[in-house]
Amino acid sequence: MKTFHDIENALRDYSWMLKEISRLQDELNITNAKMTATYGIEATLPKGDGISDPTGREVINRDRKNKTLKKFISKVDFIDVHSSVIYDDRELTVLNCLLDGMSIVSISQHMSFSERKVYSIKDEIVKKMKENAGIAENAGIAG
Fold this sequence. Notes:
The protein has helices at 4-28, 41-44, 54-82, 89-99, 104-111, 115-138. By secondary structure, the chain is mainly alpha-helical.
């Protein structure tokens, strides 16, 4: 996530990614009841014609969810780590509003700035985060 556009999207999507991370973690901690064995009379009844592999399907679903979870955690961690370079009060306010899921229009109304001004502040935030990530990468620091 080193391009300007990637960082910009991560800022915009931060609030819902946090919710999705929580949801995916909850889902991955639940065992699917369909994978349990059948007992009693149900075990002797004929099954459907189709070939079913609930365990295999569950493994594929869990793997897909786990990959998505790791991707979202990576993006959120990137924003958390590199947002520490923002010191200007206006930039901090815009950053916090973006991380809370506010739109550019609502931020401009909230701060009594033009939308163009909010966009330029957001672009400056993204630029600083990108530069910080480049410096961290060149120094061999994770992040």
